[in-house]
Specification:
Elements: H1 2-16, E1 25-30, E2 35-41, E3 47-51, E4 59-64, E5 70-73, E6 77-82, E7 85-90, E8 93-99
Antiparallel strand pairs: 1-2, 1-8, 2-3, 3-4, 4-5, 5-6, 6-7, 7-8
């Protein structure tokens, strides 16, 4: 799993040409106006903590197997990233997001 996160960070660096983008914190803006800060933890099995802003609790999701992109999920939510794009699914509703 660690190699998957390192590959993702290296891919991000290649796509964006900036060492700052390859850091463990990535900001996303979603099609419904939601703003997310994703903090990736590549220790152990890997996880992501999603912070949504004032008044909304953060959400930590464990990394899951994925044939394409990085996938983080539990029974209630899923955050699936590929390149600069992501899809957040909560309560059966999906929203697309893009890294800023």
């Amino acid at each position: 799993m660690k190699r998957g996160l390192l590959f993702l960070a290296a891919s991000a660096l290649l796509l964006h040409g900036s060492a700052a983008w390859a850091g463990p914190n990535v900001r996303y803006r979603c099609s419904d106006g939601t703003r997310i800060t994703a903090v990736f933890d590549n220790s152990g099995t890997g996880s992501v903590t999603l912070t949504f802003g004032r008044g909304t609790p953060s959400l930590t999701l464990p990394q899951a197997m994925s044939a394409d992109g990085g996938r983080y999920t539990d029974q209630a939510a899923e955050f699936w990233i590929k390149g600069r794009g992501a899809k957040l699914t909560r309560g059966g509703k999906a929203v697309t997001c893009n890294a800023r």
